[in-house]
Specification:
- The chain is α/β, with parallel strands linked by helices.
- The chain is 37% helix and 16% strand.
- A hairpin with a 2-residue loop joins strand 7 and strand 8.
- The longest helix is centred in the C-terminal third of the chain and has 23 residues.
- Bound molecules: flavin mononucleotide (FMN).
Length: 224
Amino acid sequence: MGLQFDKLATEPKLKVLVFGASLRADSLNRRLAALAARVAERSGATVDHAQMRDFDVPSFDGDAEKESDIPRGAEELRRRLTESDAFIVSSPEYNASMPGLLKNVIDWASRFRPQPFDGKHGLLISASPSMVGGNRGLWSLRVPFEHLGARIYPDMFSLAQAHKALVGERIADDDLQARFETNVQAFLSLAEAAKHYPCMKRAWVEFLGEPPGSVADRIDPAPV
Ligand SMILES: Cc1cc2nc3c(=O)[nH]c(=O)nc-3n(C[C@H](O)[C@H](O)[C@H](O)COP(=O)(O)O)c2cc1C
């Protein structure tokens, strides 16, 4: 018998930020993100539907950071992450890695304190016309997210030949659609459990082995 997932049962509802990390109007990743959002809503979560354009920022520049505030797009990502319990990002793969625009806004948003990715549960998904479905990009994306303390779900869904596999508002193959839904729901179950029973309480320390108190020592204290 396969795994069965009940609807998320408890109040307040789990809130999930969902976006596709592409600016393209016909983006396959935007469509896959919309599909994940529908599964989340059907499972009882509240979804904040975002667009990559909401998080548009100039290239990271340490001088600009000193002279002016962190750009509005990064502030928007910080705000919406902070207001959410979890996030789902559908990311294209560019040259076997993550898109530069996504890494750039992660870098900007990582400059806020408290650092907004710390402790957030994240699900990574991807869509690509290729046979790997963009999965190599997701492995690269795990690195900055996990470095920043996000809890990235072990299973990552990558839709191969996505230009053919996505038909209308679903994955045409019923078995693959079911596998996708199971992946999203299993992630939501874990995020919901963590929301109500926060077991891992630890400080975020950027470089654990640095001498405490040095200029490079960046710490967010553990939640009480
Ligand atoms: C600069 C660039 C590099 C790309 N590199 C890869 C790649 O390494 N692997 C892959 O599967 N697709 C690659 N692609 C194709 C993208 O997967 C494809 O354009 C996809 O539709 C982009 O996502 P989107 O539809 O959400 O915009 C690349 C596309 C561009 C523009």
